[in-house]
């Protein structure tokens, strides 16, 4: 790596790895290198207990950080106030036309003919898909289906919960889907239930597809996407019981599938806007 940097002499270096601290410390010149933060720093450095040999000031002291959301940067500043004052937020870029084009691809008859709520995420513990199942089970509309896209270690527990709730005839585990856009476009709404995110891609993609969304208001990401009137579809999870979260999520899903319109300005996430930010 050192030889490559010496030969290539890049003007700027953006490292997208929050974990390999020694790589940052030994190889990347501080005046030209930024660490791109894709996840909640509290989740990465505190909850996951990421190990490090030297004090964090050795890795991040006066290091410029670029975050994918304002919430991520705020957490990083609170956790490591010694990062560079030049740290900033630059959102991930989204090609709206490409998303819409991919959403027009063919889809099977079931998803064309049925009304359904959709979840698109890994089936990992932190994604809290069980909240969606619990909230869905409370809906009075028994014609509505729930389609869960994704794979992960929680799959068996989630399937057992579906059986325990007696809703197995209305819930489909679709597994990994390479292009979820058509499934999003045909859905009544998309629901995200995570405890932690960086900038949740699926919320933006669903809105670009014209599909309403409901999301937990985890500290980083969703509130920067669901602004203005869409704030009503953010579910408070901090200092809130799980039963209250599920009821609030049920209410938001019920309200959303009956209103169907969610006009929102997503221009700051467009490819053109983000490229302009990088250039400046």
TrEMBL record:
Keyword line: Transferase
Transmembrane segments: none
GO molecular function, one term: glycosyltransferase activity
Pfam families from the UniProt entry: Glycos_transf_1 (PF00534)
Residues in Glycosyl transferase family domain copies: 109-246
SUPFAM superfamilies (alphabetical): UDP-Glycosyltransferase/glycogen phosphorylase (SSF53756)
GO biological process: carbohydrate derivative metabolic process
Xref: CDD domains: GT4_GT28_WabH-like
InterPro entries: Glyco_trans_1
Protein name per UniProt: Glycosyltransferase
């Amino acid at each position: 790596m050192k030889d490559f940097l010496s030969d290539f002499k890049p003007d700027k270096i953006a490292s997208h790895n929050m974990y390999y601290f020694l790589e940052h410390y030994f190889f990347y010149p501080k005046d030209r290198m930024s660490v791109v933060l894709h996840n909640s720093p509290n989740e990465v450095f505190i909850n996951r207990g990421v190990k490090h040999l030297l004090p964090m000031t050795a890795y991040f002291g006066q290091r410029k950080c670029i975050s994918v959301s304002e919430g991520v940067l705020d957490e990083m500043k609170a956790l490591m106030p010694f990062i560079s004052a030049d740290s900033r937020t630059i959102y991930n870029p989204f090609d709206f036309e490409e998303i819409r084009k991919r959403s027009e691809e063919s889809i099977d008859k079931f998803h064309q003919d049925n009304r359904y709520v959709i979840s698109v995420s890994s089936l990992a513990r932190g994604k809290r898909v069980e909240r969606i199942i619990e909230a869905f089970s409370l809906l009075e509309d028994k014609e509505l289906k729930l389609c869960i896209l994704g794979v992960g270690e929680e799959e068996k527990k989630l399937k057992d919960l579906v059986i325990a709730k007696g809703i197995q005839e209305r819930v489909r585990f679709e597994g990994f889907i390479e292009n979820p856009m058509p499934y999003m476009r045909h859905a009544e709404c998309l629901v995200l239930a995570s405890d932690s995110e960086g900038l949740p891609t699926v919320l933006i993609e669903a809105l670009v597809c014209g599909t309403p969304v409901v999301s937990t208001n985890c500290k980083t990401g969703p509130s920067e996407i669901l602004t203005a009137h869409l704030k009503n579809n953010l579910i408070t999870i901090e200092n809130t019981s799980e039963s209250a979260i599920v009821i609030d999520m049920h209410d938001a899903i019920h309200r959303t599938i009956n209103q169907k319109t969610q006009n929102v300005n997503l221009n700051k996430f467009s490819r053109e806007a983000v490229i302009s930010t990088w250039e400046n």
